[in-house]
Structures are given as structure tokens and as C-alpha cells.
Predict the structure of Kynurenine 3-monooxygenase.
Amino acid sequence: MAQRQKVVVVGAGPVGSLAALYAANRGHDVEVYELRSDLRDPSTTPLNFTRSINLALSERGLNAMRNAGQPKLIDHVMAATLPMRGRMIHGKRPNGDLYEESQDYDVHGRSILAIDRGGLNKRLLDILEEIPNVTFFFNHKLTGADFRRNKAWFEVRKEAGAEQSGREIEVGFDLMIGADGAHSAVRYHMMKYTRMDYKQEYIDTLWCEFQIQPQSPQGGMSKFKISPNHLHIWPGREFMFIAIPSEDGSFTCTLFAPAAVYEQLEADTQGGQISKFFDRSFPGVTSLIPASELVASFHQNPHLPLINIKCKPHHYSSSVVILGDAAHAMVPFYGQGMNAGLEDVRILFGILDKHALMDAASAPEGEIGFSAAANSAASQRERALAEYTAVRIPDAHAINDLALQNYIEMRASVLSPVYRLRKFLEESLSVYVPSLGWQTKYSRVSFGNERYSEVVAKSQHQGKVLVRGLVGAVGLPLLSGGIFVYFRYRRAVEAGLRELLMSLATFVQRS
Ligand code: FAD
């Protein structure tokens, strides 16, 4: 086991909570500092409204939780999720009929899982609370950090019974894990110590949440108005509407559209334009969400931007590392933001463990002094963090790019014949020629644990092989047919070609 260290985790979202669990299981003294109040406390504001309530959890997130050494966690997750086996595409035929078309995610029948983000976060906090070497500090905002002296400062925002907030405390640490989200304060302070490349980009899309209420008890057999085992998509080319099921029979829906569309609709205080827009763009939605609710949600719920962040490195020296959205916030179109963040935790601790083991194996026999041991732990951590940055950055960048590309797939390509042909060919090869090891990119991302950068490389390779195969399959017969016709009807073909060339020459001269 690694030497006992003081690990300070900033941010008690899903990624910070899982990181705290991994650190605590290794026997470290863990302190978790969170800007907000405890989300399990019913007297405080419910889960932050600026985050989607229902998320798609898939293999990478599950794998990270499976490896957390807490069977209770994975049991909870499996009990609290709804499997979504595919996309349900909603649309309207030219004759005006509405249709639903199910597109399975995976030819082997695997599903992604719909989970309540707040429920998962609460469960993680409950488990952490039972561990003696973990201490929570809610309402503590990181305001400063010195990563050479391993000191950080937190503003205590609201204390029980206190009239005022604003007291500042100083905290020392061996390792700080920054899991404080897209607008990370840890990353901001880290930039003062390391030459960090940083790129942030807002895409021209805003999102807003809506709800499909459960079917009324008198209304029918099921509490769900539409299939509970699908992620529903109303593709709109320039925009889209999606719905993810919840256990209570409701669906959390999200409208993704360019800012200009929002601006037009915001001006419509009466709401007539909003329901017309939905009827025109997302056929069938107004029969699931009454127009009055649509309009109310549109005006009441925030219209939020989508940010894409890439940075490098993800650590500084032996003292700090950033994970999750703090390191690689991405647009939500691959359903991978939280999954990738949870995977960060598994990979980071895997690398830390490996270096601890290597050092233990090479350490000289006998006792070493306290400061020598602390120095050796720090240098071991520094090597591990450097390896983590080197391994994880190509993958973080790869999934950020894939997430951006998938927006086009979700709102437009799902309707394209070329997209469907490629999916069909790749899936058929995966089933009928398993030795080739072919899978769709989606399957590799959502149902496997291969590095994201390898997924991209393999998918590009498959694409090239498919194009070559198709050119061979279609082009070769055409070419051989042409050669056969030429030799069989040589005179007629040559006469025809001569005439064609003469007509072309005359046409060129005239023009
Ligand atoms: P966060 O959840 O942002 O948590 C950060 C925590 O740090 C917060 O609790 C915050 O209060 C705290 N904090 C911030 N600043 C400070 C400070 N200075 N001091 C102390 N604490 C601080 N991901 C998926 O995997 N699947 C999906 O289907 C999916 N759908 C999404 C849909 C939408 C519309 C959006 C916007 C995102 C979606 N995501 C999805 C992404 C997912 O929500 C995030 O990737 C995930 O929540 C990131 O977790 P995190 O713990 O890194 O950060």
C-alpha cells in the first residue's frame, strides 16, 4: 500500500466523490471541500439546476465504480438505473403520419443506463460518510493555492448558526485533487505554477430542460408515456430535442438549439410561437408535454451554454492533479462527460498504485527517516502524475472531439443512409466475422474501456477499409463490365466515343 498521505479533494460532484473514495480505500487521510451545501440536506437548495438531472451512464463509469472497492456502490447503481438499449428516433412522414424508429446502440444487445445524477452523487456521499478517514467541508470555496508549499485557502461561506460568512482557513496537503468542474478554481491556480496550454470554446448551442410527466394512473398500463428503454431523439438538423427516462415514469428532456433560435423564442412571451416551433420541429412532443408546460419550462428554466475545454498538463509537480470537467469539460453529445471523469479516477489511482509498488520493490531494506520517506513519496507521486498527464491527455482530447462530432450524428446523421449503411456493415462484420474484432465507434466508446485515442484510430482504420472494400465491390465489377463491353462491341463503342468527343469540341468552340 502507498504511504499514508493527506489528500484534499476540491469538489464533491460525482468525480470528486469517487476520487475521495479511491483515496480513502488506500488508507489516506481525505478531506473533501465543496463550495455548496450538502446536497443530501433537504433544507438547502436541491441539486444545482445548472446540471442535467438524468444522465447516461455507461461502461467506463461503471468500471470505475466497480473498481472502487465498495460493492454497495455498484449495487445501488444497478438498482437505480433504467437500461436504454437504443435511440428512438421520432419524426413525421411526408403524408403527415408520426413515426418512431428504434436504432439499437449495440448489435450484441448491450445498453447504456439512465441514472439520476443527484441520486448517484448522494449515494457516493453516503458511502464516504461511513469511512472514518474521510472528512467533509461543505460551504467551503477554494480561493487560493500555493502548490510549491502545498497550502490552500478556503472561504467558509456559511456556518451553522453563524451570521456572517467569509472566514478564510488555511489547509495543508500532500496531494490536491481538483474535481471542481468546468470553471475549476484549482485549474486556475495551477496555471500560475505550470505552463498550461488551455483552450475553451463555447459552441453556438444553448440547452434548456423540460419534463414529460408520468402517465396518469388512470391513463393506461404503464407509467411511461413513451418507451422507458430508449434515449428518445427528435432530430432537427440544426437543433434537437431529447428525452431520458426516470424511474418515476417521467422523462427529463433537453432542447439543444442555436442561440439565435432561443433569442427568437424568448421574445414570444405569449408562447404561441414556442408551441408552433415544437410542432414544426419535433413532431409529437406537444402531445407528450402540454403546450402550457412547454412554454412555462422554456421561460422558467435557464438557457445554458455548452463549453468544451482542453488543457495540458493535468498536474503540477507532486502536489496537484485535475480530473473530470475541471480537466476536460465536453459537450454532452456522446454522454461521456461524467463517464470520462469517473474513468480519470480509475486511471489515476491505477498509475499511483503502480508507482507505489515499484518503489516498494526497489526500496533498500531497513528503516528510513520520516523526511526521507516523505520525499520519496513526493517524488514517486510526481512521476506518477507526470505519467497520468502523458497517458490521459490524448484520450481526453479524443473524447472532447468525438463529443463535438456526435452532435451532428445525433441531430442529422441518424437519418442518413450512409450512416446507416456503415453501422449495418460494421455490426454485421462484428457478428459474422468476430475474429476481425470490428465494432462500431459507439460500441467501443460506450461498452468498452479501450483508450479513447485508440477508439478513434481503430474507427478511422475501419472506415478506410470499408471505403476500399466498397470501391472494390462496386468499382471493380463496373470496370470489368466496361472492359468487356469495349472488346465485345469495340467498333460501336469507338464510333460512339468519337461522336461524343466531336459534339463536345463543337460545344466548346461555340461557347
Ligand atoms: P461537477 O459535477 O461540475 O462538480 C464540481 C463540484 O465542484 C461542484 O459540486 C461544485 O459546487 C464544486 N466546486 C466548484 N468550484 C469550487 C470551489 N472553488 N471550491 C470548492 N468546490 C467547488 N455526462 C455523462 O457521462 N453522461 C451524460 O448523459 C451527460 N449528459 C449531460 C447533459 C448535459 C446537458 C450536460 C450539461 C452535461 C452532461 N454530462 C453527461 C456531463 C456531466 O454532467 C459532467 O461531466 C459531470 O457532472 C462532471 O462531474 P465533475 O464532478 O467533474 O464536475
Notes: DSSP finds 16 helices and 19 strands in the chain.
